[in-house]
Amino acid sequence: MSVFQHTTFYTTVNQLHQLPPPDGVEIAFAGRSNAGKSSAINSLANRGRLAFVSKTPGRTQNINFFQLGSGRFLVDLPGYGYAKVPAAIRQHWEHLLSTYLQTRKSLHGMVLIMDVRHPLTPLDRQMLDWFASTGKPVHILLTKSDKLSRQQTRDILKNVLLLLCETYPQCSVQLFSSMTGEGVEEATALLGTWFALDSNLIKELNSTQNRDKLKIKSPRLKGNKTGGKLP
Ligand code: GDP
After folding, report:
1. Where are the domains of the chain?
2. Residue 36 in contact with ligand 1 by CB distance below 6 A
3. pLDDT greater than 50 at residue 15
4. pLDDT digits (tens, 9 = 90+) for 90-103
5. Cα of 214 to ligand 1 centre, how many Å?
6. C-alpha dihedral over 29, 24, 44, 99, to 10 degrees?
7. Are 146 and 179 in contact, with CB atoms under 8 Å apart?
8. Measuring from atom 24 of ligand 1, which residue has the nearest CA?
9. 35 C-alpha vs ligand 1 centroid, how far in Å?
10. Which of 108, 117, 123, 118 is nearest to 194 (CA)?
């Protein structure tokens, strides 16, 4: 079953201090306004208007969290590229986004949405630059593939891959269309792997850490001569 099956709105954040505790596994979705991010999230979650809650008044400049079952979050980042955004709002946005992308421990990867007809704009590259230093994976969805011919989309995919393999080797790229469903299965499978791998890793780390903690504490456990073994 798809990890996106039970996606529900969780919370909306406009300041770094409002972020929920970094306890789960988060995958962030970013992209230029109108690139097709909300439609892509809705296609992946198989839910008609789910991501459009991020477009309701007061939330468009926010980081919106959707929960996919316990401890797994899809994080919808505010769309960028509006020409007429006042400088103060742009600065706030840059600080919120760059800090979240660069320092968030529970963030495990980013999905970057680009209109296949306008890939790798300067702001897309800025997102990649902010994230590159973390070494975490980026998966690019070249959306609206239905708008071009098969040959055109293939050529663009090849060019984007060539450009990225030198500058951003931790990137993968695919074609996507919310209209025809192209690439939905491929993206779902990849993101499922990110969530599954990371959840397993977290479980493993937690159990190792807990074991270690218990081992260290064990001599002080009262009335336990065998020393802190788990029951
Ligand atoms: P966002 O601003 O990035 O969240 O973009 P939206 O998901 O709201 O999409 C912007 C516009 O592009 C809307 O009119 C969508 O219907 C359209 N759109 C989104 N994805 C696709 C797609 O795969 N194919 C086509 N033809 N149109 C799309």
Report:
1. 8-220
2. yes
3. yes
4. 899 899 999 999 99
5. 52
6. 0
7. yes
8. 144
9. 6
10. 108
More confident residue, 165 or 139: 139
The helix (H) or strand (E) run that includes residue 138 is strand 138-143
Question: Rounded mean pLDDT of the chain?
Answer: 84
What pLDDT, on a 0 to 100 scale, did the predictor assign at position 166?
83
In the predicted model, is pLDDT for residue 205 greater than 50?
no
Among 211, 134, 221, residue whose Cα is nearest residue 171: 134
Confidence tier at 220 by pLDDT (50, 70, 90): very low
Q: How far is the CA of 34 from the centre of ligand 1 (A)?
A: 6
Does residue 38 have its Cβ closer than 6 Å to ligand 1? Answer: yes
DSSP assignment letter at 86: -
The ligand 1 atom nearest the CA atom of 177: 23
pLDDT at 17 over 60: yes
What is the mean pLDDT of the segment spanning 175-181? 97
CA 70 / ligand 1 centre spacing (Å): 29
Task: For a ligand 1 pocket test, name from 29, 37, 38, 39 the mutation site with the most ligand atoms within 8 angstroms of its C-beta.
Answer: 39
* Entry field: residues in the chain: 231
Cβ of residue 39 lying under 6 Å from some atom of ligand 1: yes
What is the fold of 8-220?
Rossmann fold (3.40.50)
